[in-house]
Amino acid sequence: MSTTNTIYNNGKTAELVKDDSTSSASKSVYDTQQLNLWYGDNHALKNIDLDIKQNEVTAIIGPSGCGKSTYLKTLNRMVELVPSVKTSGQILYRGRNIFDKDYGVEELRTRVGMVFQKPNPFPKSIYDNIAYGPRIHGIKNKKILDEIVEKSLRGAAIWDEVKDRLHENAYSVSGGQQQRICIARALAIEPDVILMDEPTSALDPISTLKIEELVQELKKDYSIIIVTHNMQQAARISDKTAFFLNGEVIEYDKTDTIFSNPSDKRTEDYISGRFG
Amino acid sequence: MRYIEHDNVVRRMNGRNLVNKLFKSIFLLATLSALLALVILLYQIVSQGVNHLSFDFLVNYASRFPEQAGIKAALVGSIWLMLVVAPTSIILGVGSAIYLEEYAGKNRITTFIQMNISNLAGVPSVVFGLLGLTIFVRALALGNSVLAAGFTMSLLILPVIIVASQEAIRSVPGELRDASYGMGATKWQTIVKIILPAAIPGILTGSILALSRAIGETAPLIVVGIPVIIQFLPKGVMDTFTALPMQIYDWSSRPQPEFQQVAAAGIIVLMVVLLLMNSVAVIIRNKFEKRY
């Protein structure tokens, strides 16, 4: 756990320590090589090769059951909570294979935040929700926690809406606000990457718009990988798009290219709404 | 071509409504019969016992004269028993439930354990008494002490507490676990900070209901060899004692009709204790549920 704690500068004002924040945006965050995954006998991911870049929004699209959520959950090894999961191949996160025996999942998940499909705040106050991550990683100082909470809520563009009710239950705000609180909660562990699993599918159009704007804002500081069912959303907010079908990556390219000039017939069929 | 003839539907509607009403009455009758049994029981006991109830009854020791007989030793003994049973059974029960739900994998061994915990809940209490007699009273040489009887009772209600706690833990939404693990929390941090706070109303309700079963059990105490007539109070867990159901059982088996009244008064005391424990369960559940 000692490496986990290094993200906080010895208890001083918390600051994200990036591996290589000065390099250009073309640096890889995640390099997936020949990844295969099985749920029991079900071969859910087949020979996935994906190179995901820093400070970009990468969208993963595809019909239900194509493996896109599974792939996302593999990136922070949440998929291992499902019994009977087997994997082969490797995923290099910042050059290190996340399946290595000595790579602790807790360490990985401290660098890789996750936002889920349904807003899932803890049944605690808004403040305690945001402070949860820093607290489990050993921050006890009230002043530092206050700072992290404010910084995270501002980062998720919800500070002004909740600053007067930080100690109310997180369930007392609307669904769209809850989801932004969940994003703030993910930001509070000062991650490097944020994984988003259909973060707007349970929200109304206005809340969706707010979160899409937020994603654009966040990519300056974070790398974002977002699974979405909504192709317009992928086209609007992402830099790169990967199209998954039956557990395979059919096409992975710049979003503009995917949506205007796909090279695979199946991609074209899917984005033009002919199936899926 | 239409499959549903509207006229036929209207014609048969009366019959269908009649059947509906018939079954409603049958189910109401079933509910009332249980209620009736309770009312008769309460009436009989209260009418018999209320004359004997007095403050003296609570502070007197047992006696061979019915008018002097009191329930002090049994009442205090039952409280001592609960002081042993509650921590033992809740710590072991909640611990087992956490292990089975959160740590143990789903394999043949855990399925086997799970199945046997459910079986254990169905084992007659006399059998637990024999187990307690063999292990705690004799093998561990605890004698017929509060500790031996308390451990025996703990084993008896352990399966109920485990199953209730497991269900409470299982009902905590999976999304909360995901959120916690997703931020790099360990299993233990997730259990302590997220799962247990959400599961505690269910765990406490189940535990207190199980404890109220323990306070009313007689058979294991008889087998363990708990005496009935005692003229002193236990000073520690190694002392012997008597308990409410034992005392009631003894009074009701005496030939003098006056003792039937004493027994009824004892039952009233026992039922008040049970009612108090159940109220505590309800209060705890409501208090914790409001927080979320």
From TrEMBL, chain A:
Domain ABC transporter: 30-271
One protein family per Pfam: ABC_tran
Coiled-coil region(s): none
PROSITE patterns: ABC_TRANSPORTER_1 (PS00211), ABC_TRANSPORTER_2 (PS50893)
SMART domains: AAA
Molecular function as annotated in GO: ATP binding
Domain of life per record: Bacteria
Keywords: ATP-binding, Nucleotide-binding, Transport
Protein name: Phosphate ABC transporter ATP-binding protein PstB
Species, as recorded: Planomicrobium okeanokoites
Protein encoded by which gene: pstB
TrEMBL record, chain B:
Protein's UniProt keywords contain Nucleotide-binding: no
Keywords linked to the UniProt accession: Cell membrane, Membrane, Transmembrane, Transmembrane helix, Transport
Pfam family, one: BPD_transp_1
Protein name: Phosphate transport system permease protein PstA
SUPFAM superfamilies, alphabetized: MetI-like
Protein family (similarity comment): Belongs to the binding-protein-dependent transport system permease family. CysTW subfamily.
Membrane topology value: Multi-pass membrane protein
Subcellular location: Cell membrane
Transmembrane regions listed in the UniProt entry: 21-46, 79-100, 120-141, 147-169, 190-211, 262-284
Predominant location category: membrane
Domain ABC transmembrane type-1, residue spans: 75-280
